[in-house]
Amino acid sequence: MTERTHLTKLVDSHIANFITDREPILASIAPDLAPFGEFSRNLLSGGKRFRAQFCYWGWRAVSDDVFSGPNGQSARAEQEFAALVELCTALEFFHAAALVHDDIIDSSDTRRGGPAAHRRFESVHSSGSFSGSASAFGIASAILMGDLLLAWSDELVGDALGLLDSTASTKTRLEFNRMRFDVTVGQYLDIFEENAWPVVPESQHLDRAERVIVYKSAKYSVESPLVLGARLHGASEAQLDSLRAFGLPLGIAFQLRDDLLGVFGDSSRTGKPSGDDLREGKRTVLIALTRQTLSSGSKRIFDEMLGDPELTAEQISTLQATIADSGAADRVEERITAYVDTALRALAAADCSETSKIELSRLAGAITQRDA
Predict the structure, then answer these.
(1) What is the C-alpha separation between 245 and 238, in angstroms, rounded?
(2) Which of 126, 130, 139, 247 could form a disulfide with 222 if both were Cys (CB 3.0 to 4.6 A apart)?
(3) 203-232 pLDDT, tens digit each
């Protein structure tokens, strides 16, 4: 069994066991809380575990320890590895919370091929013949589910830190706190750009779209997990800087790929309707690059259509064609290649284990050359 397979199995098992352990607590309060456990398990049973993998290989980049089971290492190494698994699991819970809240903000109906959390709670309302608005109930309940997932994530971080010495614990906590801050303000910047773009100078659209990528996605998707894993083992500042130099451009490339999939992705692969970002009016790098090429008349029509939740399949196709014909998709592909090249050059020069470099290179390909 490879290290990455072993890690995935451990994290999957830990997620399942954590939720199973919390379900009796929910039930002891009220049986009506059962959906929190059920919907959390459903959401967390999917996903590629990219953040857990980056956390693990951030740790392995500065550590020679490979977990081989009980008694396969020193007691200290086993304890540190146990903390690592807790931290990897915490990242998956944090990601799940972000997805729940993101789907509410974007009014997304689906996630990973199934109903989004607020739609699941909406069904609870409808099937129970409750009074009031099913939609309002679904949104309010999903907000609380996201908050609960955040609380569980923090609980797991606390469990991890309890296994570390005080220095590693403090630095790891500060890194996790900064990651949460970055994602929160990045999410707001995303909302801000979707609404404020008409009064923002045209010359700033591209830079502002890139800023959203950095803070909403790139840091917490790649950079922070890498640094968290390395911090846990007590990495030097030079090692951390080299991991950041690899992680940030790779995280940007990852989100640029996501933006392309949000417009052109196959719904059977992405688990979300094709063109979903167009209905949501996402002001991405792809959109900024498209608008740079359009005449004033074409730009006006493009802007009127973008963000209309009632866009038909034909209108989605029209917008997709406009974007493709503008050359913007090709320019985003070029940016992805350039960011990946920058990341891989930083990785090659990093003071990290050769095994981790091989695996991190593989991960770089996996997250930027995907169709889902």
Answers:
(1) 11
(2) 247
(3) 999 999 999 999 999 999 999 999 999 999
